[in-house]
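Lecture notes, part 5. Sequence design as translation. It can be helpful to think of inverse folding as translation between two languages: the language of shapes and the language of residues. The source text, in structure tokens, appears below.
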């Protein structure tokens, strides 16, 4: 009975992770596929998980709740860099004026517009290009050695680390969006001067088309730098997860 209980607990941790981790957390990703991926990861992680004694029904319920919460926490932390990229895209959309054309995007589960989606999918491409999905699986294997089944205990250092990660996510979002926002602020400054000099011009209509065109040109010019920035910071996804797991030691 104990091996079956251990398998169920491993599956609960991994399925909770898959539901919230990058890419698989999208609403249009089939639920059945998430379950299959969770089962495949369970088979992969089963040899690394330490054995547990047979549990009563009450203790099994407590352990399941612990494993689900721990898996959700790992999945959410692995999503932080992606969330920072989405925020950067939304900041740019707001400055360009695309926020007026926002619509609900079922893939991101948020109201998203052009640059928000562009940056998100660009980040996914870089994520797989750097082979980070394999390092993410390695971190999952590590979690069973450092945090055995049912031994999850929240510590002060864990909470402090999570708060620090949220602040780093916001810094990343601002850094990623700053060059584009500065360029668009300069456009606003020029348009303001034109409006004062030639009041007859419909500056609102001009600003929408001009800012859209300039934002696209600036985006293309900054694309190599954006890819370099993502390549530098996306490995933090795995590092954040590893630091979170090690905080339970």
């Amino acid at each position: 009975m104990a091996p079956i209980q251990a398998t169920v607990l491993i599956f609960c941790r991994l399925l909770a992770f898959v539901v919230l981790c990058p890419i698989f957390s999208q609403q249009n990703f089939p639920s059945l596929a998430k379950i299959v991926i969770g089962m495949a990861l369970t088979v992969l992680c089963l040899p690394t998980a330490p054995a547990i004694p047979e549990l009563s029904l009450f203790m099994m319920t407590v352990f399941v709740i612990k494993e689900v919460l721990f898996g959700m926490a790992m999945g959410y932390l692995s999503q932080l860099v992606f969330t920072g990229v989405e925020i950067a895209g939304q900041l740019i959309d707001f400055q360009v004026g695309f926020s007026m054309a926002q619509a609900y995007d079922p893939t991101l589960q948020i109201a998203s517009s052009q640059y928000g989606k562009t940056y998100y999918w660009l980040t996914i491409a870089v994520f797989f290009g750097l082979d980070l999905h394999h390092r993410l699986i390695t971190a999952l294997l590590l979690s069973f050695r450092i945090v055995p089944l049912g031994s999850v205990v929240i510590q002060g250092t864990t909470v402090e680390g999570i708060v620090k990660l949220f602040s780093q996510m916001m810094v990343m979002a601002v850094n990623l969006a700053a060059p584009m926002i500065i360029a668009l602020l300069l456009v606003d400054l020029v348009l303001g001067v034109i409006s004062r000099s030639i009041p007859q011009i419909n500056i609102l209509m001009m600003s929408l088309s001009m800012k859209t065109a300039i934002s696209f040109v600036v985006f293309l010019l900054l694309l190599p730098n954006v890819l370099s920035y993502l390549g530098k910071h996306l490995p933090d996804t795995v590092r954040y997860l590893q630091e979170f797991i090690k905080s339970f030691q």
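The translated text above is only one of many valid answers, since several sequences can fold into similar shapes. Residues 2-246 form one domain.
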